[in-house]
Specification:
With 887 residues, the protein is mainly β. 7% of the residues lie in helices and 43% in strands. It contains four helices and 59 strands. The strands form 13 sheets. Strands 43, 44, 46, 48, 50, 51, 53, 55 and 57 form a nine-stranded mixed β-sheet that branches. A five-stranded antiparallel β-sheet has the order 1-7-6-5-4, with no helix packed on it. A five-stranded antiparallel β-sheet has the order 2-3-32-31-30, with no helix packed on it. Helix 1 runs antiparallel to helix 2 and helix 3 runs antiparallel to helix 4. The longest helix is centred in the last third of the chain and has 22 residues, at 820-841.
Length: 887
């Protein structure tokens, strides 16, 4: 073969390969496997895939600066709110009670809040504060933060009350923090900069026998501090836990303080968990309580821990102290259990305290008295057992006396039954000797759980005018992480406070001469002192059309109420108005309720005036509601029709028939069968021979359903072996809050259609997106097509493939016997490459020529996405259509 012949064969081979390798299809995008768009998308360079838009990171919320917080008083009957904690730098959850200074300023602690992040745990933010509240001269009080605990060596969770020394320094204890993390005793002293400086007098937990979590402090006459620890001491307690101690802190002459353990509880009959503080008697003996231990078991998680004790510690003359258990509390209906607060003494040497548990009637706690019995022992007397109702429940704080021997305290629960799911939000109470050897309890205030506070877990103190001051652990409706609020400081005064409710009574339309009603007004004494009722009467322009009867006594006692029934009998057509007026001796003297009504010529009355159905699934039938139709006369009522409309949503079933005699009533049942989601409005129309016919009753209800809607294009085009994705939004209608199951059908052969997630639970408002993915199958082998060829390029390839044919003809014409084999071989090669060229020019699918395996057939396919919810009689099914194009 000559060189020219060889060149011809090469040209044909080159053209054939070009056509077979590159074809005429657009190339695939290496980013997503799909063909590039012929035109770039607006705002993007050509041949780039879209990417999600960036979402900015949330910015951290800035903390509040330290400041003095001024708050006006909020009046709630006998209670006034002096300050409501906000849960930030100003503190959160006051827990240690209050004390006064000589100028009338209040001091206390909060167990959390303050702004230090070292103690953040769940809803409780910050390590606690010490604060001062001062009257601001404008009727309000201003809070000043004296110290913010940081949760380190300076302590955390100051849960016990503060005390003053003679120099005006404050002393207190923290249950956490300190050098060893077991609590501290600290001093706060005014400094030259107008602030306060903290000094740690002692950090608990430095030795194995030391106490932990100190609970309260008192001074003796020499300036030594005494207190208890709830934990620590000797490890001989129930379940081998430390049992608590009684300790003394004494100045050591070197500017520091030295701790002495006066007594370590053993956890048996001597008691353990002393968390209520101490008191001295005139002889220097100490008295306190333990909330567990003692000889009477039957309390605690497994009824084996004992129900607590009252104890005495006396100097034994040898430099030590001897404990004597004065009383073992028992878990019986006639005794209290688990005292959580300290004791107080009267002038006769009797001890008084509270138990949050025990007593009769659901064991809601007691107030008790312990008296020396003359035989070296002590006798307990239950002064009051709380009933868990309006009188309160679970007194967890201590008591105080007034000058006349009455006792005052708080209960953490009970009081207003409308609060805290019927358990009440706590009370402040008074116990007074009744002259018959018993005691009478009077709730001075029942907390409502709103802006007035809830859960008064600390005791109360008096000011010089006899007003009570205290704190609630939560409540206040402030911006705290707790739903009820962060706690308040309150003042309770004695007085009568009248409340007449509601503010108005509206009778609506009533037939002239027919009496409507009665409607009820309630007169309540929300104060703690009785008031006298001078008169109850109706005044105003149309007073003769209204009347009242009542069960109110001449004097309305504290925390009691009476009812006033008002009726309306119009004497003429038109609008009537008057006022219910109560005159009494409570502050303000006069309470009123506005009265309105309309005299009508209608001979019929319809009740109720409107119907509202609860939310219901579309296509289901719920329970009916009834409308009463009454013929007030003077003649028989002829009923021509009763229709609920629109019929697509509402229907009716009437028992009224065609006529109704004078004075008779009948019932019309109205049914709600929503045809679509959302608010559905309609009417019940009654046509009769009465003046003003028809009578129309508005009807409303809410249908609940869901919808499926595409959030992306409904059509996707792919090549075999590629995946198509669609986005479908599942949207609730009418507050639908249920789970919807999703499926996909209609996928072509050799492909799958799936929905992710396959089930979504809707929240009633926002649509939930799901992704529908159709995965197609390609062939088991294909050639890549990295670049497209234009029609001109295709022609060039064909020219290359066949340009060698003339040379081959010349070669055949000059063929000799010795060249014949070479000639036939060249002819065979041309035929072979010609067939390859024809195959390449024929096109093929998007995955290239097949060489085994089955690809998804080309074509257009309809897909269906179906959402389903089924529950009882409800069966909600919705679908949306998608288009898949395989090419």
């Amino acid at each position: 073969m000559k060189p020219v012949h060889f060149v011809c064969v090469c040209l044909m081979l080159a053209g054939t390969i070009v056509l077979a390798q590159f074809g005429s299809k657009p190339p695939a995008n290496p980013l997503n496997g799909l063909p590039f768009a012929q035109q770039p998308q607006p705002g993007q360079p050509p041949n780039l895939s879209r990417v999600p838009q960036a979402v900015p990171f949330a910015q951290p919320e800035r903390g509040r600066s330290r400041r003095r917080n001024a708050k006006a008083q909020v009046q709630n009957g006998p209670e006034q709110i002096l300050y409501a904690f906000q849960g930030g730098n100003d503190g959160q959850n006051p827990g240690g009670g209050l004390i006064f200074d000589s100028s009338g300023n209040l001091y206390g602690t909060t167990v959390s809040g303050g702004g230090s992040a070292a103690c953040n745990q769940g809803l409780y933010l910050g390590c606690g504060t010490a604060f001062e509240l001062s009257p601001n001269g404008s009727g309000g009080w201003t809070e000043t933060i004296l110290y913010v605990f940081q949760g380190g060596a300076d302590g955390s969770v100051p849960s016990s009350p503060l005390i003053f020394d003679h120099a005006g320094n404050l002393y207190g204890a923290t249950a956490g923090g300190g050098t060893y993390g077991s609590g501290t005793v600290f001093e706060l002293s005014p400094n030259s900069n107008g602030g306060w400086t903290e000094t740690i007098l002692y950090s608990f937990g430095g030795t194995a026998s030391d106490g932990a979590e100190p609970q309260g402090l008192i001074f003796d006459g020499s300036g030594n501090l005494y207190g208890t620890t709830e934990l620590g001491g000797l490890p001989q307690c129930y379940h081998n836990d430390p049992c608590g101690t009684v300790f003394e802190l004494s100045p050591n002459g070197s500017g520091g303080w030295t701790e002495t353990i006066l007594y370590s509880f053993l956890g048996g009959g001597d008691g353990f968990l002393s968390n209520g503080g101490l008191i001295f008697d005139n002889s220097g003996n100490l008295y306190g309580t333990t909330s567990a231990g003692g000889l009477n078991i039957g309390c605690g998680s497994d009824n084996g821990e004992g129900c607590g004790t009252a104890f005495e510690l006396s100097p034994n003359g040898s430099g030590g102290w001897t404990e004597t258990v004065l009383y073992n509390f028992a878990s019986t209906a006639s005794d209290g259990a688990n005292p959580a607060a300290g004791l107080i003494l009267d002038q006769s040497g009797n001890l008084y305290g509270t138990t949050p548990e025990g007593g009769n009637v659901d064991r809601c706690g007691t107030v008790f008295k312990l008296s020396p019995n003359g035989s070296g022992g002590w006798t307990e007397t239950i002064l009051y057992s709380f009933q868990g109702a309006s009188d309160g429940a679970n007194p967890a704080a201590g008591l105080i006396f007034d000058k006349t021997g009455n006792l005052y305290g708080t209960t953490a629960d009970g009081g207003d039954a409308a609060c805290n799911s019927g358990y009440g939000c706590g009370t402040a109470f008074e116990l007074s000797p009744n002259g018959s050897g018993g005691w009478t309890e009077l709730p001075l205030y029942s907390f409502q759980g709103g802006s007035d506070g809830t859960y008064p877990s600390s005791g109360v103190i008096f000011d010089q005018t006899g007003h009570l001051y205290g704190t609630t652990y939560s409540g206040g409706n402030t911006g705290c992480n707790e739903s009820l609020g962060c706690g308040v400081v309150f003042e309770i005064s004695r007085g009568a406070f009248a409340k007449l409710s509601p503010a108005s009574l509206a009778f609506g339309n009533e037939t002239v001469g027919i009496t409507a009603g009665p409607q009820v007004a309630t007169l309540a004494n929300i104060g703690n002192v009785p008031f006298s009722i001078t008169s109850i009467q109706i005044t105003g322009a149309n007073s003769s059309d209204f009347a009242q009867t009542n069960n109110c006594p001449p004097s309305l006692g504290a925390n009691s109420s009476c009812t006033i029934n008002v009726t309306f009998t119009p004497t003429a057509l038109g609008n009537d108005s008057a006022s219910l007026v109560v005159t009494d001796t409570a502050p303000g003297g006069v309470q009123t309720v506005a009265l309105t009504g309309t005299g009508s010529a209608f001979m019929v009355t319809v009740s109720p005036l409107n119907l509202t159905f609860p939310a219901q699934y579309v296509g289901t039938a719920g329970l009916n509601q009834n409308v009463q139709l009454k013929n007030n006369g003077p003649t028989n009522l002829t009923i021509s029709s009763v229709v609920a409309s629109p019929s697509s949503d509402f229907s009716q079933l009437s028992t009224c028939g065609n006529s109704l005699v004078v004075g008779a009533s009948c019932s019309i049942g109205v049914f709600f069968d929503p045809s679509t989601s959302g608010t559905r409005n309609g009417t019940l129309t009654i046509k009769d021979n009465a003046p003003g016919s028809p009578q129309i009753v508005p009807i409303t209800g809410t249908g609940q359903d869901f919808t499926l809607a595409l959030s992306s294009s409904s059509t996707a085009t792919v090549a075999p072996g590629q995946a198509a994705k669609y986005t479908v939004a599942v949207a609730p209608g009418g507050g639908f809050k249920q789970s919807v199951t999703l499926t996909c059908t209609g996928a072509p052969a050799q492909s799958t259609c799936s929905v992710s997630p396959s089930s979504v639970t809707l929240n009633g408002t926002a649509p939930a997106p799901v992704t529908v993915t159709v995965t197609t199958a390609g062939t088991s082998a294909s050639l890549a097509h990295p670049y497209p060829l234009t029609p001109a390029s295709n022609k060039l390839a064909l020219w290359l493939a066949f340009s060698g044919l003339p040379g081959l003809v010349l070669l055949g014409s000059r063929s000799r016997k010795r060249d014949r084999g070479l000639f036939y071989g060249a002819i065979f090669s041309c035929v072979l490459f010609g067939l390859m060229t024809l195959s390449a020019c024929g096109g093929g699918n998007s995955m290239g020529s097949s060489a085994g395996g089955s690809a998804t057939p080309a074509g257009s396919y309809n897909l269906t996405v179906v959402g389903t919810f089924s529950s009882g009689s409800a069966n909600l099914v919705h679908s949306t259509k998608l288009m898949l194009v395989v090419q």
